[in-house]
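Before the break, one more example. Copy the sequence into your notebook; we will annotate it together after we see the structure.
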Amino acid sequence: MIKDIRRVTIFAGHYGSGKTNIAVNYALKIKEETGSAVALADLDIVNPYYRAKDSTDKLEEHGIRMISSPFANSNVDLPALPSEAYAIIHDENTYAVCDVGGDDRGAYALGRYRDGIMKGDYEMLMVVNMYRPLTRTVEDVLEMKAEIEAAAGIPFTGIVNNSNIGPLTTKEDVVKSFDIIDEISEKTGLPLRFVTVWDKIYPELSEEYENLIPLTLQERVW
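Here is what the structure looks like once it is written out:
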C-alpha cells in the first residue's frame, strides 16, 4: 500500500533510472487504492526510445488519463508540452503523476509548471538506480540532484530507491543498494520514500523489509 499519497507526484532522475516505469506503476496503484481520478503527464521531451505514452492503452483500460506531447513517439524532438498538463496541476479532484525527462533540458520543461506545483500538495521524488553508469556513487547522485533542481527550480522532497539490473535483478542486488541510498539520504536530508522492486522478487524481500512497492515490468523498460 502507498503511504501518504500527495495530489501531485513528480518522478525525476537520470536516464535509465526507471522513473517512467515507476510513474506508470504508481499511477495504476493510486487508481487501485483510491478509486479517484488519476492522470499521468508524460513531460519527458528528451527520450525518443521509451515514454510513458507507450503504456497509454493499459492506463486507459484502468481509467487513467494519459497526457503527453503531440510529438511523443514520433521522430520530432521539440520542447513541446501538453497544455492539458497545466490543468491537472491545478485540478484538486485529480491525482497527477508526472514523468520528467532525464537531464537539465527535461527539468527546464518541468519548471514551466513550477508556480502551480509549489503552491499545492506535491512531492518531487529523486529516482536512483545505483547500477546505472552515471549514478553509481554518492557524488554522482548529488551532482544529478543539483542539476535537476537548478533547472526545474523545484526542490526534491524524497528519494525512491529503484536499484536494479532489469530482469536479472536478485534479492541480493536490491539489499546491496541500501547502504549507498542511506548515505545519499543522510547527505541530502531527503527521506527514503520507498524502495521499488520487480514484482517477481518482491515476495522474497517483503518478508524481511518494509516500505517496498512491487513493480510490473512494462514493455521495453524497467
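The first helix runs from residue 19 to 34. The chain has nine helices and eight strands. Try to locate both features in your own notes.
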